[in-house]
Amino acid sequence: MSTNSILCSDTYPEFAVFFGAMGAASALIFANIGSGYGTAKSGIGLAHLSITKPERVMRGIVPVVMAGILGIYGMIVAVIINGGLAKTGDVKAYPSAAGYIHFGAGLSAGLSSLAAGLAIGIVGDTSVRAYGKQEKIFVAMVLMLIFAEALGLYGLIIALLMNGTASSVMTYECIPATSQ
Amino acid sequence: MSSAAGGAAVGTTGAMVAALMPSKKKGSSDPFTSIVKYYIFSPNYILYYIGILVVIRILYMLFQGRGEDFNIGQFLVDINPFMWANIGIAMAIALSVVGAAWGIFITGTSLLGAAVKAPRIGTKNLISIIFCEAVAIYGIITAIVFSAKLTNGQQVREFEVANYFTGYSLFWAGVTVGMSNLACGISVGVAGSATALSDAYESSLFVKVLITEIFASVIGLFGLIVGLIISGGAQNFA
Questions:
Q1: How many other C-beta atoms can be found within 10 angstroms of the C-beta atom of residue B133?
Q2: What number is the ipTM of this complex?
Q3: Cβ–Cβ gap B165/A37 under 8 Å
Q4: pLDDT digit string, tens, across residues A86-132
Q5: B interface mutation test: which of A10, A39, A96 has the most B CBs within 10 A?
Q6: How many CB pairs (< 8 A) connect A and B?
Q7: B184: which of A122, B5, B20, B220 fits an S-S bond (Cβ 3.0–4.6 Å)?
């Protein structure tokens, strides 16, 4: 009695790559949306800071840099997921389970970075303007940005974890289709 | 007794109808017309109507024993992979251009408004517009690179797994590049607007606030890189 009595055509369907690639794509897309929002919103505050206190601009670029890192998180996850996609024309290469896991991994990293980007944008904008008025706010600003950045890091960690799970489910026992 | 109960029923129905009526607006002649205009001919509840129709369709299939007809996998496989690839290429160029255009008009409006009082900023801040244009160039590059894989236009053999991989990967690579460039274009536009306004205040601030725009344009570059990587494993159509 085989452990898995499903046909190979059901375990390794042709559309499995759709979900895997959707995972890689959504990781980068949502991370970039978050990164773009964070960069733009903090940039507006930075322009206001430059008008009031130009000598503090170089320290006020910190939110912009931290928002840019979120795009890198998304790119890391997208490239790693892409490495797990089956590229050969082999039929028994990419099960649907791996496709769904890759999709979940990409979505987790992408939406987490989106959330982090929203937080960094709003916090960075307001705190950079406040930094123009009060110099001691810098430490509080950096601490808040670090906590916001950690959200994107959580998504990255879970995505890498799920990708590791997907690599271990690449082979399934199944009943091959009888030649007719 | 029954007439009292009937009167109570009519009273509650009247109360419910009165609660559902939209607020009085000028121009609505009578309650019936205002109800029809609010609930049907305006985009207030259109999503609920569409959702109800979809649910009714699904229930029809479920109760007639055809529940297995709702097959997402079959839908994904039935669409020709050639079509998937072409839609991906279209998304790459279309969304990139939308992002570039959005960024250009966000920057351009601020630039033109600030240049009224400070005409010196006009020429130097065109670099922000060029940053937005680069986003559209990324889209064109990826569309041309992906189009090179669209061989065998006559008849794509549908039942080869490699063709499916090419179709799906080009679709998602194209959507990745397009959506990343869309986000990048808007971000660069807002940053460019901030740059122009800072430059109008004082010339020395231009370079400092331009750093924001450089970070924003990196986003489009990420999309380009990942798009080329995802589509790198795709072979030509057979």
A1: 16
A2: 0.86
A3: no
A4: 665 565 678 889 999 999 999 999 999 999 999 999 999 999 999 99
A5: A39
A6: 158
A7: B220
